[in-house]
Automatic annotation (TrEMBL):
The keyword Nucleotide-binding applies. Pathway: Purine metabolism; IMP biosynthesis via de novo pathway; 5-amino-1-(5-phospho-D-ribosyl)imidazole-4-carboxamide from 5-amino-1-(5-phospho-D-ribosyl)imidazole-4-carboxylate: step 1/2. The gene is purC. GO terms for molecular function: ATP binding; phosphoribosylaminoimidazolesuccinocarboxamide synthase activity. It comes from Larsenimonas rhizosphaerae. It comes from the Bacteria. GO terms for cellular component: cytosol. This is Phosphoribosylaminoimidazole-succinocarboxamide synthase. It catalyses: 5-amino-1-(5-phospho-D-ribosyl)imidazole-4-carboxylate + L-aspartate + ATP = (2S)-2-[5-amino-1-(5-phospho-beta-D-ribosyl)imidazole-4-carboxamido]succinate + ADP + phosphate + 2 H(+). Belongs to the SAICAR synthetase family.
Amino acid sequence: MEKREALYAGKAKSVYTTDDPDRLILEFRDDTSAFDGQKVEQLERKGMVNNRFNAFIMDRLKESGIPTHFESLLSDTESVVKRLDMLPVECVVRNYSAGSLCRRLGVEEGLALEPPTFELFLKNDAQHDPMINESLAETFGWATPEQLQLARELTFRVNDVLKKLFLDGGILLVDYKLEFGVFNGEVTLGDEFSPDGCRLWDSTSREKLDKDRFRQGLGGVIEAYEEVGRRIGISFD
Ligand code: C5P
């Protein structure tokens, strides 16, 4: 697989074309950002840790029959993925209250949410990723009702697989964000799953083991990501 030109650079990952028109290379960088890119730092080893974390999770999801773009690890910080036509929406499931849900509704952090909630946001930095719904997505052509229905079903199937995987390691999957695209007509999980895009708490102490450590200046960010990884069976050596 030959790396060609840079296609896109996001806040923490870069995407490259390859000699195969249906495959891209995702590079996980050490850059870490929060609050719409207002807080940015380089955290040593983050690219490597998130690349391996994502590969492990995507493999578990694939084993459970969830279509994902992930193909293989290419290097410490790079993976080969299928080239999707991305839907410009973010799908968020919450098992416990935290983050923007608490701010928006004025509820306390840590409430068990039964059933888990599902929210849609528009990927639009200039508008700060506003919350949307299926009606707005259909009217503005961001995704069809059928695509959104599939994305929602897949997002909840991911919850069933990952809630158990993390709980077996003594960790609560509090919430997470997924992005989907279309490959050969099939709605397929894209982007990444790492502690950058989810909340993970120790199930006993409720210590935060995810990007909230960076957002809240708690320190030990990558150490926490590695701790989660070790507890669910990922090796970072
Ligand atoms: O900020 P909020 O509480 O809505 O985030 C819900 C979940 O989605 C969190 O795990 C957060 O890390 C993730 N998220 C993300 N990227 C965004 C927005 C939210 O990874 N742009």
